[in-house]
Input
Amino acid sequence: MRKLIFHVDVNSAYLSWEAARRVANGEPDLRLIPSAIGGDPEKRTGVILAKSIPAKQFQITTGEPVGLALRKCPDLVLAKPDFKLYVQCSRAFLAVCKKYAPVVEQVSIDECFCDFDNTERIYPDPLELACRIKDEIRDTLGFTVNVGISENKLLAKMASDFEKPDKVHTLYQREIAEKMWPLPVGELFTVGKATAERLTRARVRSIGDLARTDLETLTRMFGPRLGGHLHRYANGIDPSRSLLSPRRQRGTPSPPRWRTT
Output
């Protein structure tokens, strides 16, 4: 009875979708040059919604004003947001996922979870299956995704955030010590800047440090709800794993979903 979940995440979604459209029309690929999506390029107003990997070399960040980004990189190529295009591309990549997964849970416009519980007879090799989904999205739709593989949603999400783009990564429970614990504590999913800073001041610098911190200490620092949540997540425990289907056990607490602390 195998537990298996994928997290599929589009790489730099808004920019990738615009780039794929332009490439299909014979235009340059925005992913290969300093470029970004956001605001009004002519008026230099608005904020950056997505940026290419080359743009990151100029320290351009998501959420910063367009004018500031252009001062950092005067040759930055800007494109206006096109939410109609984004919805079309989102539906297209979800359709590929639904071809394979018995259950798909859309998390946002550019990411979803795929539940493959008890499918070992159909899909004996999870890594091969993830690569097949990833490659089909790339080859048929023109943009790339990362796929994270694990037994629960938290670890699948963490795995998909490893090296990008166009990659498949595993993060099973047996791999936590090697792959997740060495990471900075701020990279643990749902740990925001303020919480990370507070933990770092307490000499809890890595996710492994957090996992080894006793629950009583974390409860004193953050209260029972958040302290317990941090302790569970650092140890790869995710009670929300069963949200994809009606298998949640009664009384199982739900950690905060899709927000940072």
